[in-house]
Specification:
Layout lengths: L7 H20 L5 H25 L1 E2 L2 E2 L1 H19 L5 H26 L6 H20 L5 H28 L2
Antiparallel strand pairs: 1-2
Helix pairs in contact: 1-2, 1-6, 2-3, 3-4, 4-5, 5-6
């Protein structure tokens, strides 16, 4: 636990970024799909960079947390794709976001299981990973959702995910 406590801020930054993105998506559901792609791309890129930093800084048996590093690489790649090709269709965007959420959620759950004896509050990481998987599956099962419904779904997910990441961050901080 003490190896992770000094790095609680990276978890908190991811949580704050997710909450801010979620509030924007919920408050402005009428955004065009192109703007939504850019907003999501920026969020995925920022989250990916923060996850990369956390994965390399946080150590397990002297090694970086590779599941978190892979999650960061996935986020950076998804963000770049969204920013480079903002004109992609809503259906493609939904499929990319759905796949990103499922894979990212699985990595988070794997990381939490691996670290369950070393940190307290890993339930928040497991729950945020499970939420991510469920969110991704919902998008993959019904990709034809409208832009407003998509904005609300993405915003609700990001808000809940961010709150769970903040809970985890402050539990890790408290353990210091």
């Amino acid at each position: 636990m003490q190896a992770f406590a000094p790095h609680w801020g990276w978890l908190a930054l991811r949580g704050v970024a997710a909450v801010l993105f979620g509030v924007l998506a919920l408050a402005l559901p009428g955004l065009t799909v192109a703007v939504m792609v850019l907003l999501w791309g920026a969020y995925a890129l920022v989250d990916g960079v923060f996850a990369l930093m956390a994965g390399f800084k946080m150590r397990h048996e002297g090694r970086p947390l590779w599941a978190v590093v892979l999650l960061g690489l996935l986020g950076v790649a998804a963000g770049i794709v969204a920013l480079v090709w903002p004109g992609m269709t809503a259906l493609t965007l939904v499929m990319v976001i759905g796949a990103w959420a499922v894979v990212g959620g699985v990595f988070q759950i794997a990381t939490a299981i691996r670290l369950r004896r070393e940190i307290e509050g890993e339930w928040a990481y497991v729950l945020s990973g499970a939420l991510s998987v469920l969110f991704g599956l919902a998008l993959l099962v019904a990709p034809g959702a409208g832009a407003v419904a998509m904005a609300w779904l993405i915003g609700g997910f990001a808000l809940a995910y961010g709150v769970l990441m903040l809970v985890l961050a402050f539990r890790v901080r408290k353990a210091r």
